[in-house]
Write a structure and sequence with these properties.
Jelly Rolls; Immunoglobulin-like; single chain; mainly beta; disordered N terminus
Length: 390
């Protein structure tokens, strides 16, 4: 009887015990931004920069977070509309959310600008590893007559940018603080025919223009000039404008270009080369822009621009420009973009270092071929100015 009582008590105790179900474990979604965003500025019309917020999983309940912007080179109110603690709500089942930041469009030819978008203070979610992203506003404006016109440099002519250096060739002689003459013959790596000199007949300033002149003082003998700013004026990034008028004739090969300031230590092409403008005298309607770089040996990528409506680079001045930035280089003629390279299309490391200017006329060589009986000498490239904006 005592044994049975014990079993009855155990049974009673067991039947009275209540097992409680633990509350479900709630796993909040993790939210994270993309690493960077590129967006065209637009001209006159407001455009939006769409920033994607990615969720690790769809939420089963509504949640929210805050969005804040901060200036970089882009200025709130001038380039984009600021947000300061904007609350964004995400509905159940959504896997991403797009934040739209309104841009301010204009028709000013300027550098790309950037600002930062950050997310914070999630309610019902957790922050991931990327909580802020750089938004780059790509300037897509082109030619405006006020900017391209020859004239004094004023903020009105070049809004949105700062002139950091220029040579207007307004002195009576070439400024030795800016330029050095490279001299000599030897083909210059392209089987060229000219002998570069510092003689006034091959380079001089006349009426506010730099004259670089190729001459033929004797049969099969050519002289020219090659001016460089190495060690004197070197730059990394910026908008560069060179206004110039080209010579003419078969075998005439002028160029406005840049080389890495470290060429003496790393050699070419590891130093990088930016050809702002190259031109062949037998084709007066076309110019070329090219980037040369090292990637297991010499590589290059370039484009060209043909003047519309039968225009000629020989008959009148044109503005040759590049917009050179941390991850891209764009080429323009009279502020019309015709070519672009980026850190995703070429090996870009050499173009994150200082480069110096070169201005020259080569005679003959592998690309244009040699002069023939139709080529008249002397031939002059006229350079009105070189301007660097940052």
């Amino acid at each position: 009887m005592q044994v049975m009582a014990i079993f009855l008590l155990i049974g009673l105790n067991t039947s009275c015990t209540k097992t409680e179900t633990p509350p479900p474990i709630v796993i909040f979604p993790t939210i994270s931004l993309s690493q960077s965003v590129l967006v065209n500025e637009g001209t006159g019309n407001a455009a939006n920069a769409g920033i994607t917020v990615n969720l690790s999983k769809a939420s089963t309940a509504e949640f929210s977070f805050k969005v804040t912007t901060s200036d970089g080179t882009a200025i709130a109110g001038q380039d984009y509309t600021a947000e300061n603690g904007l609350v964004v709500t995400v509905q159940p089942g959504e896997l991403f959310k797009t934040i739209n930041i309104t841009l301010v469009g204009d028709d000013i030819f300027e550098m790309d600008d950037s600002f930062t978008v950050s997310i914070s203070d999630p309610v019902g979610a957790t922050l991931g590893s990327v909580t802020s992203t750089k938004v780059t506003i790509i300037n897509d404006d082109t030619y405006t007559p006020e900017i391209a016109a020859d004239g004094p440099i004023t903020p009105d002519n070049y809004p949105g940018m700062t002139l950091v250096w220029s040579d207007e060739f307004s002195d009576a002689t070439i400024n030795a603080d800016n330029w050095t003459h490279e001299q000599g013959a030897g083909g210059w790596g392209n089987n060229e025919l000219q002998n570069y000199t510092n003689m006034p007949g091959n380079s001089s300033v006349v009426d506010g223009k730099l004259n670089i002149t190729a001459t033929k003082p004797a049969p099969n003998f050519y002289r020219s000039a090659r001016m460089i700013s190495k060690g004197k004026k070197e730059f990394t990034y910026g908008r560069i404008d060179i206004r110039a008028k080209m010579p003419i004739g078969k075998g005439i090969w002028p160029a406005l270009w840049m080389l890495g300031g470290n060429i003496s230590s790393v050699s070419w092409p590891k130093c990088g080369e930016i050809d702002i403008m190259e031109y062949l005298g037998h084709d007066q309607v076309k110019i070329y822009g090219t980037a040369h770089y090292d990637k297991n040996g010499h590589q290059s990528k370039g484009g060209n621009y043909v003047l519309p409506n039968g225009g000629s680079y020989h008959e009148q001045f044109h503005v040759f420009s590049i917009v050179w930035q941390e991850n891209s280089i764009r080429w323009y003629v009279d502020y019309h973009k015709y070519f672009e390279v980026s850190s995703t299309s070429i090996e870009f490391a050499a173009f994150n270092l200082p480069q110096f200017f070169i201005m020259n006329i080569a005679v003959g060589g592998n690309w244009p071929g040699n002069p023939d009986a139709s080529t008249q000498f002397p031939q002059t490239m006229y350079v009105d100015y070189v301007r660097v904006f940052q």
